[in-house]
UniProtKB/TrEMBL annotation:
UniProt-listed SUPFAM superfamilies: DNA/RNA polymerases
Superkingdom, natural source: Eukaryota
Organism from which the protein derives: Phytophthora megakarya
Protein name: Reverse transcriptase
InterPro entries: DNA/RNA_pol_sf, RNA-dir_DNA_polymerase
């Protein structure tokens, strides 16, 4: 646990050892230059925010045990994606693209989104 700048508490997990033995997921991240070039002379008027994006993604059942850690009152496992996992960002982009396609949007429309 660490103290945040606003005085609250932040729960922290060090995923370096798990990331070191994880097979990296090679899904491509959008290139910001390509996204910005797609706007041409127009300016974006809206953004889509993803708050706690990883924590909205369930862990694969086989991976839950790999996230185990001990605390004062016992052993715990993460059921939702941790931000610090090496494949979390790429996985979120893939899920966003699949969701976007499900609603009938083109790849070009997706590239115009600000997913920061």
């Amino acid at each position: 646990m660490i103290r945040k700048s606003d005085g609250g508490i932040r729960f922290c997990i060090d995923c370096r050892r798990l990331n070191a033995v994880t097979t990296k997921y090679g899904y491509p991240m959008p290139l910001i230059d390509a996204i910005l070039d797609g706007f041409g002379d127009t300016r974006p008027f809206s953004t889509m925010g993803i708050v706690s994006g990883s924590w909205n993604v369930p862990m694969h059942e086989d991976s839950i045990v790999k996230t185990a850690f001990t605390g004062k009152y016992g052993l715990y496992e993460w059921l939702l994606m941790l931000f610090d996992l090496c494949n979390a960002a790429n996985g979120n982009v893939r899920i966003s693209r699949l969701t976007w396609y499900e609603y009938g949007k083109s790849s070009r429309d997706f590239e115009k989104l600000d997913l920061s």
